[in-house]
Amino acid sequence: MAARRTWIGLTTLAALAATWFMLTSVTGMVSGARFPSPAEFQQALGQIWSRGYAGGHLLQHAIQSLKLVAMGFAVAILTGVPLGLWMGWSRRVEAAVNPVFLIIRPIPPLAWIPLAILWLGLGDSAKIMVIWFAAFVPSVINSFAGVRNIDRPILEAARMLGTPRWRMITEIIVPAAAPMIFTGLRLSLQASWTTLVAAELVGALAGIGFVLNMAQQDLYPGMILVGMVTVGLLGWATTALLARAERRALAWNVAARD
Asked: Other C-beta atoms within 10 Å of 115: how many?
């Protein structure tokens, strides 16, 4: 089944590549000023890989973006997951925190860019703050939902048996909420990559978002597509790593689904 899905996905990608080649290089229905041909994409990729573009090579820009995403995502995990679990566990904490959370939740992450720059300047810290906020909200919501979806008889039975609070949290609450927590982490990682590009458009000196910004100013469609594809590949790779970690941590849940 997995091999079949892989072949279907590869066939779809091949069909898209063939359509791209036909529309841009063969028929000329799409001009290079609007969307680059495969040859123009390859030329731009070769340039940024070997000679560099926007002050660095592709690997340097990719490492910079990965660093920002990793740091913002890590801070979101360390703050959002515990807060969501705490809100799900305690009605009092939910009553105290939820009103504030409901106010800030609808605010788009990009709306925090001016304040982040004002507070932290144009360095990496401001970008990490914006990425953190984008990843923070999904991690809180899904961790909270994971706790609230636990069957109450399980918790009541544990209390009746006199289970200490720490064991209740580590051996019942967290394992039972773990599938929803990982769902939140996947959404948080996706939000991190989506926000990264916008965050790097302001005050950045390196990174994939900076490459996209410079390519837009230079009217360079080939380089724009290189940046877009790079973000897509990095997002795919990090999501695959997270999925692998989930399979290892929740082997029992994966076996049950299969």
From this structure: 12
Question: Distance of CA 5 to CAs 18, 142, 169, 201, Å?
Answer: 20, 28, 38, 36
Residue 258 has pLDDT above 50, yes or no: no
pLDDT of residue 255: 45
Looking at the domain 37-257, which fold is it?
MetI-like fold (1.10.3720)
Residue by residue, what is the 3-state secondary structure of 42-74? HHHHHHHHHHCECCECHHHHHHHHHHHHHHHHH
Residues of 142-174 as b/e, b for ≥16 C-beta within 10 angstroms?
A: bbbbbbeebeeeebeebeeeeeeeeebbeebbb
pTM for the model stands at 0.85
Task: Report the alpha-carbon distance of residue 23 to residue 37 in Å, rounded.
Answer: 8
| DSSP letter assigned to residue 173 | I
Can you tell me the distance from the alpha carbon of 124 to that of 194, in angstroms, rounded to the nearest whole number?
16
The answer to whether 75 touches 82, Cβ cutoff 8 Å, is no
Structure tokens at 135: 């990843």
Q: Using CA atoms, how far apart are residues 147 and 91, in angstroms rounded to an integer? A: 12
Which pLDDT score, from 0 to 100, does residue 58 have?
93
d(CA 21, CA 19): 5
Residue corresponding to tokens 């969307």: 35
Q: How far apart are CA 15 and CA 9, in angstroms?
A: 10
112 has pLDDT over 90: no
For 138-176, the pLDDT digits (tens) are 999 999 988 888 777 776 776 776 667 777 777 788 888
Quickly state the pLDDT bin for 64 (edges 50, 70, 90): very high
DSSP state of 35: S
H/E stretch holding 237 reads: helix 221-249
Residue 256 has a pLDDT of 46
